Every structure is written in C-alpha cells, then in structure tokens.
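User: What would this chain look like folded?
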Amino acid sequence: MDPIYVTQPFLPELKEFIPYLEQIWENKILTNSGPMHKELEKKLAEYLGVKFVCLFNNGTNALFTALQALELTGEIITTPYSFIATTHSIMWNKLTPVFVDIDPETLNLDPNKIEAAITDKTTAIMPVHCYGNPCDVAAIEAVAKKHKLKILYDAAHAFGVKNSNNSVLNYGDLSVLSFHATKVFNTFEGGAIICHTEEMYKKINQLKNFGIISETEAVAVGSNGKMNEVSAAFGLLQLRYIDDAIEKRRVLDNRYRKELSDVKGVYCLPFLSSATSSYSYFPVLITEEYSLTRDELYQKLKENNIFARRYFYPLISDFEMYKDLPSSSKENLPVAKKASDQVLCLPIYAALEESDQQRIIEVIL
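Assistant: Here's the prediction, encoded as structure tokens.
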C-alpha cells in the first residue's frame, strides 16, 4: 500500500511553470520586489478582497514583522492551541504571551475568557483562525475596542475564507497568511501580511528590507523577509488553479462527513454556517465513545501506511520554553487540553484519490 500523508502540495504541470522561469531569466531580477512579486501582490489582493498584500519569504517572518509593525509592548493575549510559530513570534519581539482557553466548538480563542486575562501590560490580542474556521471577530473587536488593544490575526489556515461574505482578512489591525508547501495556496515557502492602509504597507515593506528607506538611511532593525521571484512566479501559477483545488477539497470534506457521521466517538468539527471554507484541514475529535483512544487510532492508521497528524498536540503551553508561564497551567486551559488530547487531522489534499480516502475511512470504521 502506498503511503498516504496528511497533506500534499498542489503542483500544476511542470511544463506550465517553465514560461515563468524563462521570464525571470529574461528579467534578470531574482528578488527585491521584482515584477513577479508585484504582480502576485496585486492579484492576491484582488482574489482575497483585501486592500494590501505584503509578501514575505515565509509566514513566520511575517508574524515577527507584523508584531514589530504594530509597535507593541508588554503582554499579548493568545491561544495555546496553534502551531508554535504563533507564540515564538511574540517571544522574538521580547513580548510576553498570555494564554487564554479556547471555545469547545470552534477551537478558536474564547472571546468570553479574554477580558479576565487583561492587565495594565496588555497591548494586543493575537487569535488564530484555527483550521480556517473564523474567530468570533465581532466579540474580539468589542473587547479590544473597550480596552484599546491591537488585534493581530494569525490567519495561516484561512486563505480565501469569508465570513458573512467578507474576507476574514479584513478584520483586526493586521492578518498574517502562510504560503508554506502544506497550505491550500503555496509558493513553495512564503507568507504575507494583510494590511488596510498604504501607510502601514510602506512601513511593513521597510521592516522586511532591513529597515532601509534609502541608499544611505535605515530607520528600524528590520529583517530580510522578501519573497523571491521564483516563489512569486509559482504563486501566480497556483492562483490559476486555486478554485479548482479548493473544490476538490470540498468534495473530500463532504465525503468524510457523510461516511463518519454515524461513527460513535468520531466528532467532525463543524464550520460556521455564516462562513465559507477553503478546507485546509480535516480535524476530528476522538472521544471516549470510540473503541480506541486517539493515540491508538493514530498508530493504527500508521500501521496501514496512513499518516494522520495530532494537530495541535502538545499544546504550545506544554513546550519547555512556555510551560512555566502562569497562564500555561492546565487549570487555566481545560478546553484546549482536552482538544489537544482528542484531535486528529485526517489526510486532505486536492490530489487525494477517492479510493485512498476510502482506505482511510475503512480503517476508522
């Protein structure tokens, strides 16, 4: 049996990429906001329905820079239920993460728990649109407005996601996307910051280019976060196929839900009825009613050459560098802890064959 991995990058025909490479060779521009870079920013802004897209070499660097651009200090309220880069970006900016528990239905930051975690050192809230399921943006905005806090959304999973017919990327002060190879839309490796004003767009561009503003002047301790032309070109090619790739994921998502709906102890996480999805992940919770524990099912799938992922396990708050924070206590994060112990992301990607998906389902049944 061939291995089935939790994801696989969408790759158009190689011959379709060659003309882009030939154009790069003709331009003789490989980086520093070349023509491919500029075109991808423009086309992504149009596709996503946002004002400004600032491309980066990866999503993690985009997170670091977004926090820097907001000029934050002190404490940042965030979720323990995410990929570790979310919180690493806070620490890299010499800020203190404060973990708040998650909502049991969406697994997003629980807006009702935020206010109790706010102190006189809190300057921002950093939620995650987990699995692309939109956060309760209205409730989070109400808390932020009341306490004069910034909002930075980690939207790594939320490419193309809309809520009430508006891109989720239009909420908050900034949003950050990942274009890593594992994502619905990829540029081999890459990311972006979504912002709403030209002033912020210019500021972010300066920060991702070492803080340089002229040949003789630098105004900030920035990084080298620029996306190269080859990655940008691949993004332009990907964008031609993205709707078809998302549709194939939708079919797979629907089939999982139909086939697993009557399996006791296998709970398929719902999406908000008001939201559209890009079907970036297919998470299920393995509860006590199932015949195996989550880890036993994970191992059984492995034995059948199926590589699901316990995503997110462990919690960020359990890692060595975060476990001693007061907000990392298990008593503070009971919902997140339970979800982390139960979650399993099943394979989903555009090229997953129906027969291979059936193989996965039969192991679970």
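The two ends are 18 Å apart (CA to CA). If you want, I can go into more detail on any region.
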